[in-house]
């Protein structure tokens, strides 16, 4: 009985912590970064679905799996770069760069990446 | 190899004729193994000189054959001996053709000969049949020893001599298709296609909740995004069937307008912020 109560208390504490985290994230994170975070979550979700398919149904055609999964990973990495460069807290680390320049780099990398992916899809 | 063996045989002969001081080679237990594809042993026998193989094992490309032994300079097998020649000679019973395999020395005086798939295909598969197997060991100091180990049956197809000219109609070539890949059912594939596309809907919904509006995109940015979309469409067209060189030409054609549009759109945005 006592252990059940303790578990319940722990769950409540975790729920409160998560709610507080979500509230602070929404309140303190600039909208631009939240947009990028959503995109990163999208990349993760796409990668996970492809990985689950590969594990459950087989990796044939393997080149297509690699292209798709690699594309999800690369998009995540580009988005992480964009996030780092556009985060106002990181302004001192990237003194010469602007959010617009970072977005330009992001778009350029995506264009190159998608041609590589299309080449690899087969 | 023949020259080497002739020289060696002459040297051994001279030594034998020359004096009785030449000691003998003694061979320790000879381990003969023929493995099945599954990893089980078809034959695993340890022979003591001059014992022979009890059966005639069948060798194929997928049944590796190995023979391991240690040479000694004394009958009590105390002093291992590094040989100048350690060969396994396989002689075809009907044609008399010989296949000579050199033993690889491991520890001092210990030798091993492996006939794996590659050696089998290169040296034995072309001439199937019964072979006698002999160990031919030699040392310039200690003399020579020939040990007939037994017989093996080599499986395979008789190779046609390369210099034979065959006139007339050749055998029809039939293409053998590979085994079809095991594919999941269409329903599973469709379900995962929907699952893979679902995050896109969730992303758009999340962006809308965050207040991202398509209407807020101005003309210059719309042009830039349209050109980027053209690049994506070009990548898709390349995947579907457009060849590389035309694709590269289109890429080059789009490069300058995209650069200019991007520069203008992003500069304008930056200026508006400042």
From TrEMBL, chain A:
Segments passing through the bilayer: 38-58, 64-82
Keyword Transcription: no
GO cellular component: oligosaccharyltransferase complex
InterPro entries for this protein: DAD/Ost2
Entry keywords, A to Z: Endoplasmic reticulum, Membrane, Transmembrane, Transmembrane helix
Membrane topology of the entry: Multi-pass membrane protein
Stretch forming the signal peptide: none
Designated name of the protein: Dolichyl-diphosphooligosaccharide--protein glycosyltransferase subunit OST2
Species name: Coemansia interrupta
Gene: DAD1
TrEMBL record, chain B:
Pfam families, A to Z: Ribophorin_II_3rd, Ribophorin_II_C
Keyword tRNA-binding among UniProt keywords: no
Role summary: Subunit of the oligosaccharyl transferase (OST) complex that catalyzes the initial transfer of a defined glycan (Glc(3)Man(9)GlcNAc(2) in eukaryotes) from the lipid carrier dolichol-pyrophosphate to an asparagine residue within an Asn-X-Ser/Thr consensus motif in nascent polypeptide chains, the first step in protein N-glycosylation. N-glycosylation occurs cotranslationally and the complex associates with the Sec61 complex at the channel-forming translocon complex that mediates protein translocation across the endoplasmic reticulum (ER). All subunits are required for a maximal enzyme activity.
Family matches, as PANTHER family: DOLICHYL-DIPHOSPHOOLIGOSACCHARIDE--PROTEIN GLYCOSYLTRANSFERASE SUBUNIT 2, RIBOPHORIN II
Name of the protein: Ribophorin II
Signal peptide: 1-23
Membrane topology of this protein: Multi-pass membrane protein
Transmembrane segments: 186-207, 219-241, 247-266
């Amino acid at each position: 009985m006592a252990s059940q109560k303790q578990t319940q208390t722990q769950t409540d504490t975790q729920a409160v912590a998560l709610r507080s985290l979500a509230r602070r994230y929404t309140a303190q994170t600039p909208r631009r970064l939240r947009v990028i975070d959503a995109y990163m979550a999208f990349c993760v979700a796409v990668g996970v679905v492809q990985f689950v398919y590969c594990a459950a149904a087989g990796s044939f055609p393997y080149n297509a799996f690699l292209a798709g999964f690699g594309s999800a990973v690369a998009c995540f990495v580009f988005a992480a770069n964009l996030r780092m460069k556009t985060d106002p807290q990181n302004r001192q680390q990237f003194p010469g760069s602007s959010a617009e320049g970072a977005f330009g780099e992001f778009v350029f990398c995506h264009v190159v990446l998608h041609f590589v992916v299309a080449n690899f899809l087969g | 190899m023949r020259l080497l063996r002739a020289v060696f045989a002459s040297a051994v002969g001279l030594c034998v004729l020359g004096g009785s001081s030449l000691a003998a080679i003694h061979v320790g237990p000879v381990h003969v193994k023929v493995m099945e594809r599954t990893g089980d042993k078809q034959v695993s026998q340890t022979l003591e000189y001059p014992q022979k193989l009890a059966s005639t094992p069948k060798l194929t490309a997928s049944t590796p054959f190995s023979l391991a032994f240690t040479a000694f300079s004394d009958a009590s097998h105390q002093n291992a001996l590094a040989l100048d020649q350690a060969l396994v000679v396989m002689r075809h019973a009907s044609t008399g053709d010989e296949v000579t395999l050199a033993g690889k020395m491991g520890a001092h005086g210990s030798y091993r000969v492996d006939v794996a798939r590659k050696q089998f295909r290169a040296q034995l598969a072309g001439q199937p049949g019964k072979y006698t197997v002999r160990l031919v060991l030699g040392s310039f100091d200690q003399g020579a020893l020939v040990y007939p180990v037994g017989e093996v049956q080599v499986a395979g197809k008789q190779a046609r001599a390369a210099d034979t000219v065959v006139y007339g109609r050749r055998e029809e070539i039939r293409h053998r298709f590979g085994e079809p890949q095991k594919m999941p059912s269409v329903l599973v594939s469709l379900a995962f296609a929907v699952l893979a596309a679902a995050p896109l809907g969730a992303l758009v919904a999340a962006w809308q909740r965050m207040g991202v509006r398509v209407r807020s995109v101005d003309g210059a940015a719309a042009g830039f995004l349209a050109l980027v979309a053209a690049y994506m469409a070009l990548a898709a067209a390349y995947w579907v069937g457009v060849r590389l060189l035309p694709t590269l030409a289109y890429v080059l054609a789009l490069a300058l307008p995209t650069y200019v549009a991007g520069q203008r759109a992003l500069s304008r945005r930056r200026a508006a912020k400042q």
